[in-house]
Amino acid sequence: EQNATSIITSKEDKEAIEKAVGWLKNNEAIGIPTETVYGLAANALNADAVSKIFAAKNRPQDNPLIVHVSSIDMLKSILPDNHVPEVYLPVIRQHWPGPLTIILPASPKIPTSVTCGHPTVAVRFPAHPVARSLIEACGFPLAAPSANSSGKPSPTLASHVFHDLQGRIPLILDGGACDVGVESTVLDGLRNPPAILRPGGLTYEALKEIEGMDGLQVYRKHFVDKELEAAPTTPGMKYRHYSPEAMVILIDRKEQEDPSFDRKFDQAWKEQLEAIQASGVGVSKIGMLRTTQDGATAVWETISVTDRNLECVSLQMGRHGHPDEVARGMFKGLRELDGRAVDLIFVEGISEDREGMAVMNRLRKAASKIIEV
Ligand code: TXA
Ligand code: MG
């Protein structure tokens, strides 16, 4: 364990990048910004460096990592015979750099600790300028999972990484707030038909438009445990994930445009709360994570909702009907509510359109209980 973790701000400035490169060449793992979420990066070609990622975030040893490149030449350099499978050429042309990870044949150049012994390797070309300059300056690809402690919500600010990993890594590069807010979409084009293994920042709607992707499947949108036990497709999906300290109850909609949803939501959380209190669990502070109609995001209000001395903290993730805003605010909202030490979080479900598919995938996994109203 290291003593101190320093955070340095980088807007692609040379000195910050050089410091980061120094640690990476020394086979250390550091926090870096990407456009999706912060990553915990280390030299993907060095097993010793990669082992530090698993140690710092306490990641299960059988959950493989995404390898990040900064050019197509670097991509080719890690593939068998330097060959990019044809199926990926149109998606690469249209969506790289960006929030898309593709599954490729692994080669002996990639340590088995990255692939966890799978015959494939997941690769992404991030769009964030700091991530790109950093990989370029290193001259080697970076393995990087999300920079949270295993099981916690993914970090979308440098301060989130610090909260989870302080004292465990030497450096965090602060590149500001992540623009996308949820992780990349994991696409397996090697199977027929091609499949999304993890919904993410690049939408199903955008991907299925691409040449060769018309039969695109989405695997385990709802990630029912029984299915996962039968045949895990992407190892990460079998673990409990994205969970804040507080218990999360997801209140989903039966109908998307229901004018009485607000009333039903209020009724539902009060019923749930009463049931929990009746079971003898003490609750003094609750959090709400909602969408809003009015464009206001991340507005806090503290209101007293009952005469039972219960405090309620309410946070808006983004506007209803704007899943990109909700994606950007969701993990941040879960973490901010944890910071306010709430006992329970009631979060609103949104439509699975566009980025909503990734949002609902994460919320379902974070929730201990899901109800529909
Ligand atoms: O946006 C992102 O993808 C972020 C940023 C840092 O780039 N990274 C990220 O990494 O989300 P991580 O480790 O949190 O998620 C990687 C996912 C896991 O679900 C893992 O099981 C899956 O990708 N994965 C990795 N290699 C795989 C492979 N060969 N086959 C199938 N799934 C794989
Ligand atoms: Mg992760």
UniProtKB/TrEMBL annotation:
Q: Say which domain of life the source belongs to.
A: Eukaryota
Task: List the GO biological process terms.
Answer: regulation of translational fidelity; tRNA threonylcarbamoyladenosine modification
> Which residues does L-threonine bind?
36, 68, 124, 144, 184
Q: Does the keyword NAD apply?
A: no
> What is this enzyme's catalytic activity, as reactions?
L-threonine + hydrogencarbonate + ATP = L-threonylcarbamoyladenylate + diphosphate + H2O
**Record family assignment:** Belongs to the SUA5 family.
What the protein does?
Answer: Required for the formation of a threonylcarbamoyl group on adenosine at position 37 (t(6)A37) in tRNAs that read codons beginning with adenine. Likely catalyzes the conversion of L-threonine, HCO(3)(-)/CO(2) and ATP to give threonylcarbamoyl-AMP (TC-AMP) as the acyladenylate intermediate, with the release of diphosphate. Required for normal translation, by ensuring translation fidelity at the level of codon recognition, appropriate translation initiation selection and maintenance of reading frame. Also involved in telomere replication.
Descriptive protein name: Threonylcarbamoyl-AMP synthase
* Classification lineage: Eukaryota, Fungi, Fungi incertae sedis, Mucoromycota, Mucoromycotina
Gene name tied to this protein: PARPA_04141.1 scaffold 11792
